[in-house]
Amino acid sequence: MWMICKKEWQQFFSSLTGYIALVVFLLINGLLLFVFPDSSILDFGYASLGSFFSLAPWVLLFLVPTITMRSFADEYRAGTFELLKTLPLKPAQIVWGKFFGALLIVICALLPTIIYAISIQQLSVTGGIDVGATVGSYLGLVLLGAVFTSVGICASSFTNNTVVAFIAGAFVCFLLCSGFDAISRLPVFRAGADYYIEMLGINFHYRSISRGVIESKDLVYFTGIILLFLLVTQKKLADR
């Protein structure tokens, strides 16, 4: 499994595209956080990374499918999937190896953003940032990235076209992020079902963790979604 994980890591950073994707991710977040007037934390007057943690999921929604779109699509297209099957590895080991390899790349993209928290802490005159909420929000971003990674890998396992894999992965991630929220706001569900429908979406649980309160229901939700898509991917590989 770790051999597959290492291969995924090396494949992403073997081309300029991987580095460009990470630079663009950090550049967009930096511009949104410090430059653009509508979202710049310098205009808020208090030390908070709330705008970053509310905008970062939408940037991840495009970054993660970029990372995962080649996971299996390139293997199918280049014919290396047949060689991959000859290795003494079970489909589950291949899937989890791909997952952890892509997730490590996502975490590497998030690590430099800790500089934002350090900068805001240094710029604040009194109080500083809410450490508990900040740690919870970063945990939420990692879990969110893990969900997006499982979705992207699943999408890549259904096609040999990387563009189709990217579009399908990004679309499913978008539905998980905002689809259930939109449905819960329909007038027909305002009698009480809206809360339970909203609970099916990622945003509900991400906002809960971002408050610095880590509850078992949120961890179970993220773990369940990840396992669901990885099991679907595993079944797809077994069928091939």
What's the layout of helices and strands?
Blueprint: H1 2-13, H2 16-34, H3 50-68, H4 73-78, H5 80-85, H6 91-110, H7 114-123, H8 131-156, H9 162-184, H10 193-199, H11 202-210, H12 216-239
Helix pairs in contact: 1-6, 2-3, 3-8, 3-9, 6-8, 6-12, 8-9, 8-11, 8-12, 9-10, 11-12
| Tally of DSSP helical segments | 12
The tally of domains stands at 1
User: How does the overall form come out from the CA principal axes?
Assistant: globular
Task: Give the termini separation.
Answer: 19 Å
GO molecular function: ABC-type transporter activity
Keywords: Cell membrane, Membrane, Transmembrane, Transmembrane helix
Subcellular location: Cell membrane
Protein name: Protein involved in gliding motility GldF
Structure description:
The protein has 240 residues and is mostly helical. It has one domain. It is 75% helix and 0% strand. It is built from twelve helices and no strands. Helix 3 packs parallel to helix 8 (131-156), helix 8 (131-156) runs antiparallel to helix 11 (202-210) and helix 11 packs across helix 12. The longest helix has 26 residues, at 131-156. The radius of gyration is 19 Å and the shape is globular. It holds the Pfam family ABC2_membrane_2. It is a multi-pass membrane protein.
